[in-house]
Request: fold
Amino acid sequence: MKNRLIKCIFFTLLICLFSCYKKKQSNSFEKLYNNSLKAINTHYIKNDVIHWNNIEHKVKDSIKQFTSNNDVYSALEYTLFLINDSHSFFLRPEQNIFDHDSLIIPEVQTKIIGNNIGYIKILGFGANDSLSKLYTLKIREALIKLDQSSNLNGWVIDLRDNNGGADFSQPLGISPLIKDSIISYTKDNKGYFKPIICHNNSFKVGHGDIGTSINYKNTLINQNKKIAVIINNNTASCAELTAMSLKFQKNTKIFGSRSRGLTTPLMHIDFTPSGATLLLSCLYLCDLDKNIVRSIIPDVKCSSHKSLDKAIEWIENGT
Reply:
């Protein structure tokens, strides 16, 4: 009888310990979600119009108990669905392209078209920092090689169907074409503005903020020539910033149709060591008058298949 009582007490203790362990685990996963929700609340550009308590209640009603990373991931995916932001997104570890170096860097197409016009076609490329920097170098090398190949009468930067990439990877590649250092402004969810500055081989947000830079030749033979930028409805994200970086330069025009409207720079929130990452709209892109830019509006509106001809015509004839 005594042995049976000891066994019962032993098993009861085991059950209590296991229950406490599971509860502790559950609390740690729920805490991870709570911290993530707090970060989203703090940095999301539209945080003042979101009912965060309602979001939290809906998410926690759908996930009664947080018992794994997968529960946290599902909660974050549902949170982004509820805030309904078209640019922000969440990547589970198996989806996270920023965690590996196996992606193939796109080719940068260059050629001479029309009456000695330098043409550059830049494709979208989303990757980690190291690959994005290599892509920036590839764009810059293509630009310099084309610049040295001929006495050019102008430039065409083709961003059609470019779905973006790391924030400054593409505009930094073509930054020798940029003459005015302040290309636009950002606005955060507290209403503060900071200039986006292009200077020599670097881009940065705000005068004191760490930005993005490369160590590569940044002088052109064919300076002060007309620049035509071609966009369409599939030009998005970093490609829109690339178009924006040229939009307010002298002797520049944008041709095509309105861009997709994913102009909000993204903040990376990493879930180390799981390998998941959250990319969150954290800033508005603004023009030189500090008006929010929802999408890039072309100076010359035309269909995608006519935009290159229109660009060539403007460079050659000024019409």
Residues 2-43 form the longest helix (42 residues). Helices lie at 2-43, 52-62, 69-83, 129-149, 169-173, 238-247, 304-317.
